[in-house]
Amino acid sequence: MDKLMDNPWFIKIMAILLAVLLFSVVPNSGSKTNEINVPGGNTTETLVDIPVKAYYDTENLVVTGIPDTVDVTIEGPIPHVQSAKALKNFEVFVDITNAKIGNQKVTIEVSGLSDKLKATIKPSSITVAVQEKVTTEFTVEAEFDNDLIKEGYSAGQPTVKPNKVKITGAKDVVDRITYVKAALEGGDILDSTVTKEAQVQVLDKELNKLNVVVEPEIVEVTIPIKSNTKTVPINILEKGTPQEGITIESMELDVKEAAISGDENVLKNTENVRVEVDVSKISESTTLTLPVIISTGITKVTPETVKVTVVVKSDVEKTVSGVPIKIRNLPEEYEAVINDPENRVVNLLVFGTGTAVTELGPNNFDIFIDLNGLTEGEHNVNIQVNGPPNVNWEPDKSSAKITITRDNA
């Protein structure tokens, strides 16, 4: 280095380099100032959906007509505009602290902006309605869709907990309240008691939703669901006429009662269900599986089918001969002679089941003619027969010829 420093050429070269370096860092006074790299100039930005605050006596007044947001256009130096846009460190508000009851026009203001910025608010003014705030207690009614109740079930009286709410709002709005309802939402079919939370809805008479504050907003709705079921006897209904020579001795069900479901009013008026047995098609003892028949309005029956055991007996025939004809209700002043049949007896063809027929004799029947109201002369009188139950008979004579004369004794 000492040798270099002693060399005059080295010193000259270093001096030239230092001079060039100094020249490069000194500003050129001949150039224009706008070519210097420093911020400058104005710009305009529109900020949308800026929230609007309101200052007023919130405890005693309700103010309507204030928009939730407005658009604010700011103009000024670029750095200030960009900062306001990024930070939004300003407030848009309406001051209604000295408001009176009624409608009035107020100006929307802005605070917190740099004094280098100009703000334009759209809209710049609004008309607000200042009203007295009132709080009233209302009863909440539960509401639900009856179509959600499963077929065969019914809903009882729903309950709401709590069943009263406090509603706060402008006096004229509160005065318009017609319905306070808690609607149970959801599309599930209901077949058991259900409890769900529901939002309270406040409506006017035209079912328009009203702008009020509800406390509490959510209530608990319980809808009792019960099965419409009733147990009734199953009756046997005979259809048709038994075949000739066939007697239905008994019909027994394997199940004598059925559970039915349906509309509650229909159940109240339903005392039984039935099975129908067509006896005209039965020729021997048998067991039939038949449907249980229900009336209109019954939606379900359990069991749906039952077994009917039918016991039949074939008829046997027997002739009971020589049953005497008795005379009844002949006045004392008359005498009657039976001319036909001459022997004054009737033969009966009796038919029925088993021993009910085979053990019968003349003493089991009462055959007579009734002469009540007849006078002297010849008459044809119907022969009448009384006999034991569960058998049928046919007499060989249906009428008797008699002569009535006056008793001269």
Written overview of the protein:
The protein has 409 residues and is mainly beta. The chain has 4 domains: 42-132, RNA Polymerase Alpha Subunit, Chain A, domain 2; 140-227, YbbR-like domain (RNA Polymerase Alpha Subunit, Chain A, domain 2); 229-314, RNA Polymerase Alpha Subunit, Chain A, domain 2 (Beta Complex), CATH 2.170.120; 315-406, Beta Complex (RNA Polymerase Alpha Subunit, Chain A, domain 2). It has 6 helices and 31 strands. It has helices spanning 2-6, 8-25, 78-87, 171-174, 264-268, 355-358, and strands at residues 42-55, 61-64, 69-77, 91-95, 102-107, 109-111, 118-122, 125-139, 141-143, 153-155, 159-161, 164-170, 179-183, 194-203, 213-215, 218-223, 225-227, 229-239, 246-253, 257-262, 273-278, 286-291, 298-302, 305-328, 334-340, 345-353, 366-370, 377-382, 384-386, 391-395, 399-406. The strands form 7 sheets. Strands 19, 22, 24, 26, 27, 29 and 30 form a 7-stranded mixed β-sheet that branches. Strands 6-4-1-3-7 form a 5-stranded mixed β-sheet. The longest helix is centred in the first third of the chain and has 18 residues, at 8-25. The chain is elongated and about 195 Å long. Mean pLDDT is 87; it is low at 29-38.
Topology (elements, then pairings):
Elements: H1 2-6, H2 8-25, E1 42-55, E2 61-64, E3 69-77, H3 78-87, E4 91-95, E5 102-107, E6 109-111, E7 118-122, E8 125-139, E9 141-143, E10 153-155, E11 159-161, E12 164-170, H4 171-174, E13 179-183, E14 194-203, E15 213-215, E16 218-223, E17 225-227, E18 229-239, E19 246-253, E20 257-262, H5 264-268, E21 273-278, E22 286-291, E23 298-302, E24 305-328, E25 334-340, E26 345-353, H6 355-358, E27 366-370, E28 377-382, E29 384-386, E30 391-395, E31 399-406
Parallel strand pairs: 1-4, 9-13, 18-21, 24-27
Antiparallel strand pairs: 1-3, 2-8, 3-7, 4-6, 5-8, 8-12, 10-17, 11-16, 12-15, 13-14, 14-16, 18-20, 19-24, 20-23, 22-24, 24-26, 25-31, 26-30, 27-29, 28-31
